[in-house]
Amino acid sequence: MKFDQNTLKLMSTYRRLPVAFSHGEGVWLYDTNGNRFLDALSGIGVCNIGHCHPNVTKAIQQQSGKLLHTSNLYQIPLQANLAQELTSISGMSSCFFGNSGAEANEAAIKIARLHGHQNNIDQPAIIVMEGAFHGRTLATLSATANRKVQAGFEPLVSGFVRAPFNDLEAIKKIADNNPNIVAILVEPIQGEGGIQVPNDDYLPGLREICDQHNWLLMLDEIQSGNGRTGKFFAYQHYNIKPDIVTTAKGLGNGMPIGVCMAAGSAANTFQPGNHGSTFGGNPLACAAALAVINTLFDDNLIDSANRLGQLIYKTIEGQIGSAHYVKAIRHKGLMIGIELSEPCGPLVELALTKGLLINVTSESVIRLLPPLIIKEEEATKLANTLVKLIKAYMGDDRTKPR
């Protein structure tokens, strides 16, 4: 089935690839012509436990026959159960549920501003990082460091101070010169920014600075959370506890759900009337999220993310790691980025012709976010197929495709 982009009755917010999928199973997607594709992107980190996982399918089917929605004017037992699970895993104290990562980050930004006002700071400001991506609402795109995302939507929301990622000294200088800072908002690993993995002392250093200045440490785990990096949350690699954690994407495995979790004083900042969501945390989404969490732990998928991420990394590194056109290969679990020496956007469609779904971000970084259920054979196939594509594209075999 082919679609004419010029006649689709859709706003032109995406440059869609020339493929439409009819169904999926595990790490595989099937298009409307019956072709099979190895999904190394998981819907941009959403389908962490693969397509049509029977546990999620069962949870959605059962819950859809009982109750879809009541609104947050009433008690929602499944939401309470999900909050209990997430706070137990994260070390946080309370949860606010929305429908997306952007909404979760909006909640975090509002908490930070309330925190500032409660501490007599009239113009509270939040430190955000170069290369960051936090969403596309007006506040979250203002926090994002991508002019392509921001262009045309000025005036942007004020109250954000930008700093280089993975640079503690820059944060210390801001602390010395800006008395209005109330929080730091940062991705433990930058996803859209090119799978940028910070030094091991970075997050602990941010925690220390925040403690010194009574700032909130707010971690955007929209992409890095839910087992993706080999821990349920990426910050758990560093033995720290943030004040606020946001996540979404893989939490619902395709069902829209986002959550902003808080601890300490931040957990009690919101009061009735301060914030809300009509659909956030409805029974259907919570049932799916609970099934996801149970599956991640019952099937040891978080440990598998470490092992199979290392397999993919070593396979690619062993074949092209020393090539002159490979600037870096970065990974944490199954969050993998291969940075090339030149823009490589065409690789996305080239990979499509070979039955592989990938993504390119920051113009020259191939981003891999395969499902955590991927098997060794599939992981090896992914890596070998990608290496061949990269070699051909970069002219390594003297036959660079067009």
Notes on the protein architecture:
- With 402 residues, the chain is of the alpha/beta class.
- The chain has 2 domains: 21-53 and 301-344 and 351-368 and 378-393, Aspartate Aminotransferase, domain 1; 55-298, Aspartate Aminotransferase, domain 2.
- The chain is built from 12 helices and 15 strands.
- The strands form 3 sheets. A 7-stranded mixed β-sheet has the order 4-10-9-8-7-5-6, sandwiched between helices. The chain has a 4-stranded mixed β-sheet with strand order 1-2-3-13.
- A hairpin with a 3-residue loop joins strand 14 (359-361) and strand 15.
- Residues 398-402 have low confidence and may be disordered.
Helix content: 25-40%
Structure summary, number of beta strands: 15
Q: Figure out the total of helices.
A: 12
CATH-scheme architecture of the largest domain: 3-Layer(aba) Sandwich
Strand order of the largest sheet: 4-10-9-8-7-5-6
- In the CATH scheme, what's the topology name of the largest domain? Aspartate Aminotransferase, domain 2
Low-pLDDT segments, ≥5 res = 398-402
Quick structural gist:
The protein has 402 residues and is α/β, with parallel strands linked by helices.
Q: Helix and strand layout, with pairings?
A:
Layout: E1 21-25, E2 28-31, E3 36-39, H1 42-45, H2 54-64, H3 77-90, E4 94-98, H4 101-118, E5 125-129, H5 138-143, H6 147-150, E6 160-163, H7 168-177, E7 181-186, H8 202-213, E8 216-220, E9 244-247, E10 258-262, H9 283-298, H10 301-320, E11 326-332, E12 335-340, H11 347-353, E13 356-357, E14 359-361, E15 365-368, H12 376-393
